[in-house]
Specification:
The structure is a single chain. The chain is an alpha+beta fold. It is 47% helix and 12% strand. It is built from six helices and six strands. The strands form three sheets. A two-stranded antiparallel sheet has the order 1-2. Helix 1 packs antiparallel against helix 6 and helix 4 packs antiparallel against helix 5. It starts with a helix and ends with a helix.
Length: 200
């Protein structure tokens, strides 16, 4: 007949295995769901606000370079029984939570740079070669009338609009949440716990 100490050790082993597997399952499932929010352009069923200056449906929200989407890291810790999702991108928090930022001279300089990059201008660069333009042109030098150019033209208008803002003025960043608690997150966690508890 097994001793009480043996029963206790076996129970502890099962509990530790349950915690380890549960945290792993939560990490994997939520990582997939949070990533899908970028495809849904919504926080599960809560649609993200569209752009005011360019509402082209073909341009995904928060996916210009994919850097934000691919920056999300996850970690499960058995010491405090938690799953943590983080991002190394400095602007991740303001997109996830929304907020207001103040225009600085450095920001204006960046917006002008982005505008000039698209347009291929050598303005403010007298000692340098022109920036390689993103806009596509015909052999005669005219802009090509294609979808990519239309998108870039709208993007250039946005950067010019931002660059012309006064230093000290405010920019409101709408909340486009992609990580956090939600009834769907709670449902996923509850189902994982219920499933794994049956294997104890």
């Amino acid at each position: 007949m097994p001793q009480n100490s043996d029963i206790t050790k076996e129970l502890e082993r099962k509990v530790k295995r349950f915690i380890r597997l549960t945290l792993k399952d939560i990490r994997v499932d939520l990582e997939e769901e949070f990533d899908r929010n970028f495809e849904r352009e919504a926080f599960f069923n809560e649609a993200w606000m569209r752009r005011k200056h360019n509402d082209d449906e073909s341009r995904g929200l928060l996916t210009q370079s994919g850097k934000l989407r691919h920056s999300i890291k996850k970690e499960a810790t058995t010491t405090d029984y938690s799953v943590i999702f983080t991002s190394s991108v400095p602007y991740a928090a303001i997109h996830n939570e929304g907020g207001t930022i103040t225009v600085t001279r450095r920001m204006k300089k960046y917006f002008w740079y982005r505008y000039l990059l698209i347009m291929g201008s050598k303005r403010n660069r007298p000692d340098k070669a022109p920036l390689s333009p993103k806009l596509q042109r015909k052999k005669n030098g005219e802009l090509s009338n294609n979808k990519k150019n239309l998108e870039l033209t709208e993007e250039a208008k946005f950067y010019k609009y931002m660059a012309l803002k006064r230093v000290g003025s405010k920019i409101t960043i709408p909340k486009r949440q992609f990580i956090g608690m939600h009834p769907e997150v709670e449902r996923i966690i509850r189902e994982i716990i219920e499933t794994n508890s049956k294997e104890l």
